[in-house]
Each structure stands twice: as structure tokens, then as C-alpha cells.
Specification:
There is one protein chain. This protein has a single domain (11-219), classed as Muramoyl-pentapeptide Carboxypeptidase, domain 2 (2-Layer Sandwich), CATH 3.30.1380.10. It is 21% helix and 14% strand. It is built from 4 helices and 8 strands. The strands form 2 sheets. Strands 2, 4, 5, 6, 7 and 8 form a 6-stranded mixed β-sheet that branches. Helix 1 (68-87) crosses helix 4 (190-203). Residues 3-21 have low confidence and may be disordered.
Length: 235
Amino acid sequence: MRFLKSVSLTAATIASSVTAGAESRPADIVDVKSVDDSILVNMMYNTDENFVGAKIEGYRANICFLTRQAAQALKNAQSRLKKRAEEKNTKMVLLARDCYRPRKAVQHFVRWANDPSATEKKETYYPELPKDRLIKDGYIASVSGHSRASTVDITIAELQDDGNYKEVDMGTIVDYFGEKSHTDSRAITKDQAASRKLLKSVLAPEFKNYSKEWWHYSLAQEPYPNTGFDFDVVP
């Protein structure tokens, strides 16, 4: 869930919808399922199971929106992962936990971070840090690269015989705030480190990883490098 320091909003690249004050989704930002239906999607901010402990503003559907270029790159990564899984006689697929993130959602995070009374998820997501350090230490900021629609929070899942899936053990959950989440952390097991290496290897040709978050990947060549969007996640 990496947040970046500067993103400008360009009116020329953001169209207004018929509804006053509402922003429409550009045609080249697509549902990843329309590009590769085999990618699993479980948008954590569309539920209350996240570090805030509530559904986040702007998330109104379980849809992973990405620029078409990022969605195609994710499809390529999925193909590489499936090939690697077949070699090991397993069934592994990518599982997207967050994709495009509206700017209003980022503002929701900031309001939460500035509320010292809202700590119900501390033991799960930031047990090692006092809440007042989350902004100071750069875990939460006012602008997110996710709003440019070419960044994903992603992991690997293993498909089960009953049709369900189980997330691969990466050493921490997605959005764990602490040093253990650093991609090359030495505070995890060899198997967990190997799983992080596998994730990075299938994504690396087109995506770059944020070293403090093993799950956070951004398209190396973003089509909207200076534009943040604010349309809701809706069908």
C-alpha cells in the first residue's frame, strides 16, 4: 500500500461525468477480469477486513481496475506463474488485494491515521508501531500511486481441489506495517522468502517492487505518471 509524495491532477486527462462533481472512468482503465479472468480479485478495502477496520470510501464493488497496459502486464505475469506452478505440479495464481484506489479513499486513510481512538486493528496490522508514527514513518500519506491505476497490491494463491484457494505464506499479511514486510526481510523463513522471490520473479519483467512492501508493484512504464483519479470502484 505504498503512498507517493507527489501526483498532479490534470483536467485534460480526467473527464467529468454527467453527474455534477463525479468523475468518469477513462476508457483505457479496465477491469482486469476482462483481460484475464483467471486472476483472482479480493479487494480488501471493499470490506471491513483491512487496517482501518471499515469499508473504505470509493470502494463499491469487488473490481480490480487497472490501465490496459498494467492489466496486460499482469496477464503476462499470470502466464509465467502458471508455468512455474505446472513445473512443481501445483496450481498457483495471482491474487489482487488492491488495484486502482480513488483519491477519496486515500483521504479516508489520512483521517483515520489522525484519529488516535481508532486502534481496533492495531494487533493485526501494526503491532510494533504506535499509531502516531504511521504518517511520520511514511506508511500513510496524502497521495497514493494506486490512484494512477497502474499499481497493485498482490500476492499468490494456491487453488484447492474444492474450488477454493489458500493464500501462499509470505511471512506477513498484506498491509502489515513493519520491517518484516520489507521484501528482502531476514525475519522470515526460507520458504516465505522463496515465495516472495517467486512473486517478484513473475512480475519483475514489467513491474517494479517497492522494497518496504513485498506485495506492492507498479508498472515500470505508467501511462498516467502524473495523474491521480477519483472515480468510484463501480461496475
